[in-house]
Design brief:
With 92 residues, the chain is mostly helical. 76% of the residues lie in helices and 0% in strands.
Length: 92
């Protein structure tokens, strides 16, 4: 497997709850199903599990924060300012 494939697997491991739970329950099966070779499987068996869970929660929190602070939130803030008489609604 290439370094890019391993990186892709790791990215999925941090962002895909089902894959992460399957990996934590049975690292051999989960990694082999993803096409990793034996050396990568062995290396991943020693991953910091607490760190993996912490990072996954952190990334999920950041993604949720970005979703909340998107264009819709900006539009709502502008609308509330208009309703409160602070400024007129202008499209940017």
């Amino acid at each position: 497997m290439s370094a890019a494939s391993l990186e892709t697997f790791l990215a999925r491991l941090y962002t895909d709850e089902r894959l992460r739970q399957a990996f934590l329950a049975n690292p051999d099966e989960a990694t082999i199903e993803q096409g990793l070779d034996e050396s990568e499987v062995e290396a991943l068996k020693h991953i910091d599990r607490a760190g993996l869970e912490f990072a996954a929660r952190s990334f999920a929190h950041k993604r949720a924060g970005h979703a909340r602070s998107g264009p819709r939130r900006l539009w709502i803030a502008r609308l509330l300012d208009c309703v409160r008489g602070n400024r007129s609604v202008q499209r940017r």
